[in-house]
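User: Please predict structures.

Assistant: First:
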Amino acid sequence: MSHTDCAVRDCNYNIFNKPRGVTFHSCPIRSDMRNKWLQMLKTKCTVLNWNRSRICSKHFETKCFNIKGKLKDDAVPTLFSSAAHKHPVKQTQERATSSRTNVDRVLNKLTQAELMSDIKNTLSKMKEPSNLETYMNDDYKCKTDTPTEAQLWILVKKQDHLNTRLMELVVQNKKHVELLQKNLEEARSSKKETEQSVETYKYIIKCLQEKLATLEEQIDILTTVESR
């Protein structure tokens, strides 16, 4: 947890988004107060670093501050209503993230073919503007006065072209993979044949060595006989 954020779990206040009047306070130095803070915070904070962590003033009762708004030495954080302290922007972002997560979860269940088919069926039911090219610059980007519908259609067109290119790459890669697999099988077959040939050559060499040894013995015998 950064020292710029409130250490209390589910409290999204930090020094950048805090409302006016909200202050941040370091953990106490005194050991007796640390024990009291720990008693209250041990289940409220994901991470609590005594040297860096900060607790925002929303977790202290009003009586914990003096008339100048300074935190009293004996103050202990006791307010932990996460819903009351949840930052509205954070809530909106979390709802959007949750929505995206649910959509992604549904889309992940569909195969690539099903997604492509659904896209094509949806596009076939929609009417494409007849003057899309008039809304595009020379760099194939939308002009500033392009209506939202035309912008979406241009985006759809670009996505469709991209999908087509990607499918072509998939087909090419599939062919490359098949070729590599074929070459690998041929290499394995060639290796196996080579290994068999090596074993055959080893056997032939062994037989020749045995015959050579036999011939050498016969030569020794003949030499001995002749010398007598």
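Second:
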Amino acid sequence: MQIFILIPGCLHSIAMGFMVAFPAVLNPAILSPNSTDITATSAQASWIASTNGISGIFGFLIFSHIFQSFGRKMTGIGLNVILIVGWLTLSLANSITVLVFARAIQGLSIGGVFISSITICEYASPRRRGYFTTIKIISVGVGSLLCHSFAIFCTWRQIAAFCIIPTALAVIFILFWPESPSFLAMKGRFEDCEKAFTWLNGNSVESKRELKYLIKAQMRRHELIRKTEKISIVECFIKTLKNKEMQKACIISALLTLCIDSCGRYFLIAYITQILVEITGSKSIAIYCSIVSDLLLIFGLSISCIVIRKFKRRKLLFSLGTLTIAIMFIISIVAVLKSKYDILCQVPWLFPFVVLLHTFVAHIGLVPVSFAITAEVYPLEYKGICSCISGIVFTIFYALTLKLTPVMIEFIGVSGTYAVYALLVMFCLAILYFILPETKDKTLQEIEDEIRGIDRSDADKNLLPEKAISVDT
């Protein structure tokens, strides 16, 4: 039954892939002096591309609260409805102002990048959690590939109208979901939690054990809340911000998010055509390479579904992350040799090759593992505020990446741009090496206990008796 949860997550991600790649379709159309539709300056086009990252901050503030207070179903429906409104407005836009407004509406749903991943992690079993998250990321690549491919024979308005379909289907699927067992347990609805958990995971001994730990941990939390003096909302918020487990989870998430943004996850999807035109001087080569890049992205993520099940998260992150950094520096060196010394004129295919190799390697390890870990490390009690804080960090990085990448290419060239991003990835991995826990094949409760520094045997001793729990031991 868990596949029923994955399908709408993938449909939402396909629409998100269209959204991220859409500037690659929209910008050439509105920047063309021969356009009979809306025309824009390069500055206006960059604002259209990056506006959804800015509005995403407000989206996280809204949806993180809904996520923690009203549940995962309502949040999933809201995220997709917002996307539908954004795509509809975009397809009917008649001015630069409306284009900016439409992208801003879409940006409110950027919270789906984190929130839908966290949701899938809550619904999925530990063994499926990693590759379910990766399949969702593959869906973003599928959306990007479709967007770049449709650009060959469709207008940007037609593409925007098409994107309403997957988001509408996602809403229909979510209507038939049960609520997340983790959310129900957090709210003290233990009988409903047991029913939902059994519907999703069956009655195996392993599933019963996971359910027992989940319910017991939340019973203990509710018991502590009852014994604690009531404090104001402001005091509760300050106390939450001071919580070390919450801080550690947010720091890990922020560093992984910066890794994802800096390794080319988004700026390559949006600007790969511009990057290749800058170096090769051929628009046709750049367009076909962008399609090949999307195919390699999907292929790399498909391989990662297997790799992420076989190897530890830390091993994949640091080994393939280091390889990604090395390739980014190679791209920087090749770009310098090509632009300043024209040494590589006899091998014009070399630069596109290393750019495509970078896309492939990054999406085997660094990108999917970072997404998987980010969705796993939040303590249940603080998932709302953690997703909000991490989401704001994500939208800031995302908006800055889309806004600054073309500016960096213009002023420091492709070589300088790749060098800067490679140094950022190196910085993040160096810190993560010392603070990142291993999460593979562990339940979310086990990961939470590890972040809190709680030994599982000690936790068992301190948990409440099994009263009110119908799960067999």
